[in-house]
Design the sequence.
């Protein structure tokens, strides 16, 4: 009788709604997170794996919650289901400028629990059985799970990798092939998920590439673009602007919805989490035409009634302050805005890690030539590095790994964690199929505090076990570190 | 348009809340409609949030564990294990607790992860209106079974509102996947007794595919521990493995806008919900979860002259219940005194509603406009005291059962309750 209780009929792929994708062996996150937490001293690990900051939000953001606790200072009860009035007004105003059109706060905005929920609800509202969703690969693994949960069929469009041997010097750049995209889009296409800046590669889609996407979907009126823009304020290496092009409101970032004819075809999704190092605040949003936003708004009362009034009010109050002059708490140096400081901070950290990774034998893009955004470096491993992986780690059985075995990238990350205390994430889970090519990449996060980044650099570069050879390696290591030091 | 998208489009009607909140505001009414307090959370809860924001590193300001922020899971496990009726149950913070964005999203994740298409969910009417729309959004079929009303009984919610056992028994079929219990009950304030819950447990035993979701958000608003204690269905023999117990911080700590809710249950239920939540929003906000974790501990300590915050809370609401009961009775709105929760269902039979109100345009009313809806609009606009019509808490076929009731909330300041009383007497006259 008890066994009968737990046997649920499996949902057929065409029935709605679908069960969540199972992950019996765990995910790349639970696997590597588990390795970190079960290590002898987790505090000694330089964890550049998980894609969220390790420091709190800036003081002006935290202060909004602090001040909200004063008597009568803030609303503590339910708010409007579609979004707290103060926040939707602020966002409508900002996006009206970004998209150069007049947005109605009541009909163009839906507030969600982080961008993740905006994506979830977008897909839930749009997908009917048989619908296809175009996903560029490599991809943030959440997308695939959410598409399946909505009953959609994923259609993968691989991005092209520019080898480091390429004479242009743009090795490491990922590009979109418009012909490949055109071949993947058709009458069954309901969504194209665009993530720029891109997780995990750090790619920034150019205006030209976005126009190619617009051209590809134009003949198919059902196709909607979900534009995940959570890293948009961290374009550390902007793409070159075409001559005569106007300066962008958000440096280096093109809003897909601002392209001709695309506002009606786009759900623009973003959040406060990455911008303000407040991923635990979970304030996200979807912006778009009433035809696309209304179905999301309709679901919100049944999903959660409303998102947290407290967190929404705090972010609404913080947003205008981010445009004001910002003083670096450590150095006292003043920046024209918080966004300017954020870019500078991430650029310095990126540069340090680039040198450390190169010194350790990885191949990384030359960001003076390659555009980049977000806080991930997508590094290519070389034989020099992989030759160090112990034979008993490479290829061993591992339920969480793609294919159930630790491929080169996966094994390398396990080895680096154990031997050097540096946590990276293998890229293989971000591809739809397993291949030797996919195993060559690892994702390195630099959204960490300076000390952790320095430690990681030191650990990656300095491999000596002592002795004469060790001393020489040490001094080279020291020199590299000094030249790259985060001042 | 096929099933998934059409499910969400079936929700396009605004809810009763979307009509009455703006109406109350526009009319300058004392809002005894929507069930949230009009005061700040207690000082220790606000302090807990301030402390939470200041925790260094990523522990609180960044993503927490998808299942539940661990300090909150630990605090909840401790809280439930400390309750005598729960002490025999194995509550592991790592496997038996899930948190989400208010109890509402806990319920959503439960339905979404545990219902297969076509599964039935049995709701006891009157039922919080969101349950039915959640069931439909998640591909299930809501079914309804009404509580009976006996106004010849003593006028308390436990005595007036009862179960029709034959009807309930008939309503549970092989397709029934979930039975939703809500105790203390919104809107009536009824608290399900041990004999009643035991009878339900027998039915659950007889139907192996049936799970119970027990919504207990008003669990600390209990006015007579001796004769009407709060009982969690999960604590009945054999029911732990069949039950998801839901609750939240919102009503207890006057933080409905913080949206911290949780579910407690056996691993097989909690795991499915967690797997789903991973993809819905990844995790609920961590900051508020941390604040509530700390508040749960503090709430068990002496508070003012009381043994705990909960003891103070129950006493304060008991006092407010008396104030509103008297005001309602004084104008012939016969109150059915609730044993729990902060709502009073009042019998409105002796009040007349002007005909014109029935023809007013309404965003959300069933057509033709039911009597209770019209009366609630009249009270809100003319008497300037907002109440909620209970008809949204009934399925369309049973809306008439609500026609002679109105739901009033007493989670309001004493001043507001007094003002409401004054306005009621001014317009309806003392009886």
Sequence:
């Amino acid at each position: 009788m008890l066994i009968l209780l737990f046997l649920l009929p499996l949902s057929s792929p065409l029935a709605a709604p679908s069960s969540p994708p199972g992950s019996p062996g765990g995910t790349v996150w639970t696997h590597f997170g588990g390795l970190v937490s079960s290590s002898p001293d987790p505090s000694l690990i330089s964890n550049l794996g998980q894609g969220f900051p390790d420091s709190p939000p800036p003081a002006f953001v935290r202060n909004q919650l602090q001040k909200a606790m004063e008597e009568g200072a803030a609303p503590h009860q339910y708010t409007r289901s579609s979004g707290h009035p103060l926040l939707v007004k602020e966002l409508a105003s900002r996006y009206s400028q970004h998209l150069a059109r007049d947005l109605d706060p009541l009909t163009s905005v839906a507030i969600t629990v982080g961008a993740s929920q905006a994506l979830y609800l977008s897909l839930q509202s749009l997908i009917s059985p048989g619908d296809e969703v175009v996903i560029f690969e490599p991809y943030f693994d959440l997308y695939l799970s959410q598409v399946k949960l909505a009953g959609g069929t994923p259609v993968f469009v691989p991005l092209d990798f520019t080898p480091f041997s390429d004479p242009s010097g743009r090795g490491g750049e990922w590009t979109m092939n418009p012909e490949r995209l055109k071949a993947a889009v058709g009458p069954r296409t309901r969504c194209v998920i665009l993530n720029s800046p891109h997780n995990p590669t750090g790619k920034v889609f150019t205006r030209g590439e976005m126009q190619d996407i617009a051209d590809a979907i134009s003949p198919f009126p059902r196709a909607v673009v979900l534009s995940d823009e959570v890293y948009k304020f961290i374009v550390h290496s902007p793409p070159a602007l075409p001559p005569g092009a106007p300066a962008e409101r958000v440096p280096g970032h093109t809003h897909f919805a601002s392209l001709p004819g695309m506002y009606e075809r786009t759900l623009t999704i973003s959040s406060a989490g990455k911008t303000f190092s407040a991923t635990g605040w979970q304030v996200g949003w979807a912006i778009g035409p009433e035809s696309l936003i209304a179905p999301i708004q309709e679901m919100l009362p049944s999903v959660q009634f409303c998102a947290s009034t407290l967190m929404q009010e705090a972010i609404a109050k913080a947003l205008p302050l981010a445009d004001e002059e910002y003083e670096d708490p450590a150095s006292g140096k003043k920046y024209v805005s918080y966004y300017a400081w954020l870019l500078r901070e991430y650029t310095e950290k990126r540069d340090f890690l680039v040198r450390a990774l190169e010194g350790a034998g990885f191949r990384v893009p030359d960001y003076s030539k390659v555009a980049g955004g977000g806080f991930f470096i997508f590094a290519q491993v070389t034989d020099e590095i992989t030759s160090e992986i112990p034979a008993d780690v490479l290829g061993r059985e591992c339920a969480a790994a793609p294919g159930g075995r630790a491929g080169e990238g996966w094994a390398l990350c396990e080895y680096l964690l154990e031997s050097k205390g540096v946590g990276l994430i293998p890229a293989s889970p971000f591809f739809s199929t397993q291949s030797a090519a996919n195993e060559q990449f690892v994702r390195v996060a630099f959204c960490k505090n300076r000390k952790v980044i320095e430690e990681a650099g030191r650990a990656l570069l300095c491999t000596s076990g002592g002795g004469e050879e060790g001393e020489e390696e040490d001094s080279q290591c020291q020199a590299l570190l000094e030249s790259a030091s985060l001042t | 348009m096929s099933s998934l998208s059409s499910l969400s489009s079936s929700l396009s009607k605004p809810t009763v809340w979307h009509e009455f909140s703006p109406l109350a505001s526009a009319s300058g009414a004392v809002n005894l409609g929507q069930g949230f307090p009009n005061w700040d959370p207690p000082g220790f809860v606000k302090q807990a949030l301030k402390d939470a924001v200041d925790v260094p590193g990523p522990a609180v300001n960044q993503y927490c564990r998808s299942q539940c922020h661990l300090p909150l899971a630990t605090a909840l496990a401790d809280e439930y294990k400390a309750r005598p009726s729960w002490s025999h149950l194995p509550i592991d913070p790592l496997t038996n607790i899930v948190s989400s964005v208010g109890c509402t999203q806990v319920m959503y994740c439960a339905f979404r992860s545990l219902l297969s298409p076509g599964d039935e969910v049995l709701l006891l009417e009157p039922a919080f209106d969101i349950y039915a729309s959640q069931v439909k959004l998640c591909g299930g079929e809501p079914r309804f079974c009404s509580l009976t009303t006996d106004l010849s009984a003593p006028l308390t919610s436990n005595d007036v509102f009862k179960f029709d056992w034959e009807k309930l028994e008939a309503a549970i079929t092989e397709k029934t996947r979930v039975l939703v219990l809500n105790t203390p009950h919104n809107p009536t304030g009824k608290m399900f007794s041990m004999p009643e819950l035991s009878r339900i447990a027998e039915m659950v035993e007889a139907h192996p595919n049936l799970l119970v979701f027990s919504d207990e958000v008003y669990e600390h608003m209990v006015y007579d521990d001796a004769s009407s204690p709060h009982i969690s269905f999960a604590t009945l023999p054999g029911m732990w493995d069949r039950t998801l117990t839901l609750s939240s911080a919102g009503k207890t700590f006057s933080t409905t806008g913080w949206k911290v809710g949780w579910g407690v249950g056996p691993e097989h239920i909690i795991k499915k919900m967690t797997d789903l939540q991973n993809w819905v929003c990844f995790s609920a906000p961590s900051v508020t979860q941390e604040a509530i974790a700390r508040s749960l501990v503090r709430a068990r300590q002496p508070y003012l002259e009381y043994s705990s915050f909960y003891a103070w809370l129950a006493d304060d609401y008991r006092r407010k219940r008396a104030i509103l009961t008297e005001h309602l009775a004084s104008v012939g709105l016969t109150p059915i005194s609730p044993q729990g929760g902060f709502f009073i269902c009042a019998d409105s039979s002796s009040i007349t509603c002007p005909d014109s109100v029935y023809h007013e345009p309404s965003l959300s009313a069933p057509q033709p406009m039911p009597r209770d809806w019209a009366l609630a609009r009249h009270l809100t606009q003319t008497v300037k005291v907002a109440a909620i019509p209970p008809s949204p808490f009934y399925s369309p076929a049973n809306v008439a059962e609500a026609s002679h009731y109105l739901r009033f909330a007493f989670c309001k300041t004493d001043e507001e309750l007094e003002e409401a009383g004054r306005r009621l007497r001014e317009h309806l006259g003392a009886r």
